Amino acid sequence: VQLQASGGGLVQVGGSLRLSCAASGGTFGRYVVGWFRQAPGKEREFVACISWSGGAANYGDSVKGRFTISRDNAKNTMYLQMNGLKPEDTAVYFCAAVESIVLFRTAANYNYWGQGTLVTVSS
To answer: Which residue of 1, 69, 88, 102 is surrounded by the most CB atoms within 10 Å?
Structure first.
C-alpha cells in the first residue's frame, strides 16, 4: 500500500490543523494505520494509531486529549485532527500502516510509510 500525507503547515500556538493520509494500492480496511512525528535532532515519536474498523484507537501521552485520529475506509483515508497545538508539536508527521488486528505504538512494527508533512507551531 502507498501512503500520501498532507495538511501540514504553519499555525499559531493554540490553533488547529487536520492532517490527512490517503492510501492506494491495497485494501485499506485491512490495515492498522497510525501517525508518528519526528522533530529535528529527536527520535521518531508515536502519536496515534487506529484499528482497521476505527473502533479502537491509541494515543501518545503528549497528545492525548488534544489530537483525534479517525479513518474513512470508503475513502481510503486517515485523519489526524490536532487541536490546542503547542510549539513542541512542531515536527514532520508521518503516516504508517501495517496489516494487523493489533494496535502498535512502535514504529518498527509498521511496514508502510508516507513521505511526511511538516507541521510548524509558532509562539
So the answer is: 69
